[in-house]
């Protein structure tokens, strides 16, 4: 793994690459959140035959914090993705997104065009905040009565205290990652998350959306994206299987893999199945 920093108008952006000298079309991985950071587990394994690049978005992980919180926005991150791709020299590339990173990738394609983008891999995709919120109401209904009550009180009073936090933990164990215990790298990544970015753009939790992305909705425009797309989700994902299926049908050229006995972090819960699915898609792209 080789690390570097990329200078942008808003600060230095951390990046790394696995398999830099391999000959296949590179992957550029866009992490979720907003406010999370790159987590190379499973995805870096794909570097056996192609370079796999990661970067931490502004304010996240090892990248600089913004000089002004207003820079934590969809517009900033779209321009940043463009700048990172150009600086890394990724003329031809497959873009890989996780959760919010999927929405960022699709926004980038719609804003900048698809030139050189050979395909998209969208895992646990957040492509529509209204659809996401609707799905989370269904997820909340599967929690304990005490968790449901705590969420209701917290959202009503806009006070997100201990009981609300306990409900979030219960939700995480059911829909975010079902590994028990969580691997240390996931625990450390969650603890390193920039909560300021998350709250500004999203809200106090996965299911309480109050931030700038509340009206974010690419669903009506997905038909404009005609590059090949693979969508993946767990069968107990935050991103409901039906919603991901609806996204698949909205794209012009998309396929879908549902990972069994898995949640939002399906790529680390069932890594071999995930890699087989992604490997099949990448081979399909090579035949085009």
Short structural summary:
The protein is an alpha/beta fold. Helices cover about 40% and strands about 15% of the residues.
Keyword list:
288 residues; alpha/beta; Rossmann fold; eight-stranded mixed sheet; 40% helix; globular
Percent helix, as a range, is 25-40%
First-last Cα distance: 30 Å
Radius of gyration: 18 Å
Count of separate DSSP helical elements: 10
For the record, the CATH architecture stands as 3-Layer(aba) Sandwich
| Shape by Cα distribution | globular
DSSP strand count: 8
Strand content: 15-25%
Mean pLDDT: 97
Largest sheet: 8 strands, mixed
CATH level 3 topology:
Rossmann fold
User: What count of domains describes the coordinates?
Assistant: 1
Identify the CATH homologous superfamily.
Alpha/Beta hydrolase fold, catalytic domain
Folded structure, characterized:
There is one protein chain. This protein is of the alpha/beta class and 288 residues long. The chain has one domain: Alpha/Beta hydrolase fold, catalytic domain (Rossmann fold), CATH 3.40.50.1820. Helices cover 40% and strands 17% of the residues. The chain is built from ten helices and eight strands. It has helices at 74-88, 100-112, 129-140, 145-157, 162-176, 184-192, 195-201, 241-250, 266-269, 271-286, and strands spanning 2-8, 11-18, 27-30, 52-55, 93-98, 117-123, 229-234, 254-259. The protein has an eight-stranded mixed β-sheet, sandwiched between helices. β7 (229-234), α8 (241-250) and β8 form a beta-alpha-beta unit. α4 (145-157) packs across α5. The chain starts with a strand and ends with a helix. 45% of the residues are buried.
